[in-house]
Amino acid sequence: MSTLDDPIQQGLQRGWHVLGGAHGAVPPTLLCDVAIIGSGAGAGITAELLTKAGLKVVIIEEGPLKSSRDFRQRESDAYPGLYQESAARKTADKAINILQGRCVGGSTTVNWTSSFRTPADTLAHWHSEFGLAEMTPAAMTPWFEQAERRLNIGPWLAAPNQNNELLRTGAAKLGIPASAIQRNVKGCWNLGSCGMGCPTNAKQSMLVTTLPAALDGGATLLVQMRAERLESREGLVQALHCVPVADNSAATGAPGVRITAKHYVVAGGAINSPALLLRSGAPDPHGLVGKRTFLHPVVISAATFADPVNGWDGAPQTLYTDHFLQTQPLTGPIGYKLEAPPLHPVIFASTLAGHGRAQAQMLAEFPRTHSLLALMRDGFHAQSTGGSVALRGDGSPVLDYPLNDFVMDGARRAFLSMAEIQFAAGARSVVPVHELATPTTSWAEARLLIEALPMKPLLTRVVSAHVMGGCPMAATEAQGVVRPDGTHWQLANLSVHDGSLFPTSIGANPQLSVYGLTAMLATRLAKRLTGRDVLLA
Amino acid sequence: MQRRKLLQIGAAASLTLIAVGASVVLMRSAAPAAELNADSRALFTAVAQAVLDGALPSGATRAAALGAHVERVQQTIRGFAPEVQKELAQLLGILCTAPGRRLLAGLATPWEAATVDEVQQSLQAMRTSRLATRQQVYHALRDITNGAYFSDPTAWAAIGYPGPREL
Question: Does A11 reside within a domain?
Fold first, then answer.
């Protein structure tokens, strides 16, 4: 257990209103100004701004309230405790594993701190294709700046760890530029444990920033409580029904709560937000809810080096290259961003392919293993329509995301790019993470192998940590679930404030895109509901 | 000609699989896999010895390491959402019947009697199968096994992971 200060424990001692789980039973009914579903990036920003405007806010989170004293840097705690479906959430055909947070702070509690403003070409595409007139760098810059100030987003001044440095080394040899990634940290210890919850509270996640501000301002937080259904009538949401859930999200059977509010903000993340609208039978005249869900599908290349890489050690993802996003048009063949992810034993052993002696040999190289990932920018081409969210028998969501030839062509090119960079950086061997691949010892050999591998789902290992879309905003009802101001096209007192708003993927790690966009939407919602001007930072 | 024959066999096999699956599912209650029964524990023990071949300790500590591993598998499954547990319970139910094991895993010998080599061949056949269902079974068994085993500090020395830095 960490002996550092724990701002959450301190807040609870100050008398924060937290109910659910071990914090006490919920009353049968609750009345508030705004009910916010979720507690991740969009929910946190919204909660702080609305509370500042003097609104009575209730935040509803399905996961538990964990804090630095619980963050022991162990995957065995983190995955079941902090992630959706124990970090094993899968697409319908089980071909993609999805990492998504399920705890107070949502994915911001467990992300790797990579902070990028929404790329200008993505905004331009939204402007031209979805009529989102305000989606320009000039109009969005002030909102990104506010989020950056509030969450201490800035350059990372320490030296990149070896895992990242090798990306730069290999890219430079090939004349490919790599740049530094900004991070949302304050006093970071450079541990590399971000994905298991920050044990030193350096990561400026929602857990230690906006949510404490909202709770200090009088907001109520319900934890281990699932937003089950919105009750609506005549174009207005009338109430939200929630049920207590256990550690694995099973309903406990204990009585739930009916929350009535003037306004409702859905911010449970793409997959869960559209699922709530589907469970609620919310109006969806154009059949858009849960459709066009994007993942930045990721493929991975693993290399071994003569010297230690220690991929677990030090800040994750501090360098990147967008070279392969720019080698073809935005709406052409799928492009990809390259980054160097952190490695820990479970994620390493379950992400690499193979079993038995071959696996044991590969895992024994763990300290000398370097990995690169390519996140593919989906949603910009007619053949990249993403996935769709459906409900299982018990109402829980499942995402069907077909890995079609268009996407898998990108996977092949990405494997080639990564292997070439790794060999240029001096790798002794490189293996694309694919069930039929064996380690190669030269770029020429790798190229032959990768060109011949069948790029099929379940043979090619594909993962995702960025879920986007499913409740898109658009200037017309035919194209969007919500309006450009985030309110639902058919339900006037309902807004969506999370990554499900995005009409396409972002083409970069999405947290700052969620912060900036929801800062804009929530500031205006506060003004509309109270007449007051509030500022995030 | 040969390819056509293969496809026919594939189609026949998948139909049989569906039939076996359906009959087993009908026989079982659809309750989540809260507890692994003896058959499922034998299956996960056999799979562990195959997947973790070269990683598991040999000699006197092997049995204890396997026992602790199966406990962690149980713990991992308890963390899964109800629908996922239910799906897994159905799969384990099928794999623990002789016809299910033969058709889905391609394994003639019962799990508790199969050699490491036999289970590895079965896993490899599922891994490279043309049938998505068999590939999915491979990934499920292999990922649960690796996740449960490498989450434990006793597994770290062998892969050179020093553990988290003390604060």
Answer: no
How many residue pairs bridge chain A and chain B with CB atoms within 8 Å of each other?
Answer: 128
B29 has pLDDT over 50: no
The answer on A405 and A271 residing in a single domain is no
Sign of CA dihedral A492, A497, A500, A502: positive
pLDDT of residue A3: 66
- What percentage of chain A has pLDDT greater than the value 70? 99
Residue A121 half-sphere exposure toward CB, CA atoms < 13 A: 13
Residues A287 and A362 in one domain: no
- B25 — pLDDT class (breaks 50, 70, 90): very low
In a domain, A284, yes or no: yes
**Per-residue pLDDT averaged across A332-337, rounded?**
98
Q: CA A168, CA A161: separation in Å to the nearest integer? A: 11
pLDDT of amino acid B35 = 85
Distance of CA B113 to the CA centre of its chain: 15
Residue A326 sits in the same domain as residue A424: yes
Beta-bridged to residue A371, according to DSSP, are A302
User: What is the mean predicted confidence (pLDDT) over A67-87?
Assistant: 96
Question: Does a structural domain hold residue A8?
Answer: no
Within this chain, do residues A74 and A206 fall inside the same structural domain, yes or no? yes
Q: What is the mean pLDDT of residues A244-257?
A: 96
What pLDDT is attached to residue B6?
39
A287 lies in the same domain as A297: no
Q: Which residues pair with A29 in a beta bridge?
A: A258
Rounded mean pLDDT, B46-59? 96
Mutate which: A363, A391, A398, vs B, most B CBs within 10 A: A363
Q: What is the mean pLDDT of chain A?
A: 97
Q: What is the mean pLDDT of residues A255-260?
A: 98
CATH number at residue A177: 3.30.410
Share of chain A above pLDDT 90, in %: 99
Domain holding A278: CATH number?
Answer: 3.50.50.60
φ and ψ at residue A418, rounded to 5 degrees: -70, -45
For position B34, what pLDDT does the model report? Answer: 64
Which pair of tokens denotes residue B140? 């499920």
Cβ <8 Å between A350 and B136: no
A37 and A143: one domain? yes
Does residue A7 lie in a domain region? no
Angstrom CA distances, A227 to A241, A483, A486, B110, stand at 6, 23, 19, 45
Mean residue pLDDT across chain B: 86
The C-alpha atoms of residue A163 and residue A309 are separated, in whole angstroms, by 6
Is A226 in the same domain as A213? yes
- Whether residues A337 and A228 fall in one domain: no
Host domain of residue A358: 162-183+293-464
The predicted model scores a pTM of 0.95
**Rounded to whole angstroms, how far apart are CA atoms A147 and A164?**
26
Select from A444, A464, A484 the last residue of a domain. Answer: A464
Burial A466-502 (b: 16+ CB within 10 A, else e): bbbbbbbbbeeeebbbbbbebbbbbbebbbbbbbbbb
When pLDDT is averaged across residues A252-281 and rounded to a whole number, the result is 98
Overall number of domains in chain A? 2
Residue indicated by tokens 């909660």:
A47
User: Which of A464, A487, A508 is the C-terminal boundary of a domain?
Assistant: A464
Give the mean pLDDT of A375-382.
98
Are the beta carbons of B124 and A355 separated by less than 8 Å? yes
The domain locations on chain B are 2-158
B interface with A, Cβ–Cβ < 8 A, is 32, 50-55, 72, 76, 78-85, 116, 120, 123-124, 127-128, 132, 135-136, 139-140, 142-143, 146-147, 149-152, 155-156, 158-161, 164-165, 167
Contact A237, A494 (CB under 8 A): yes
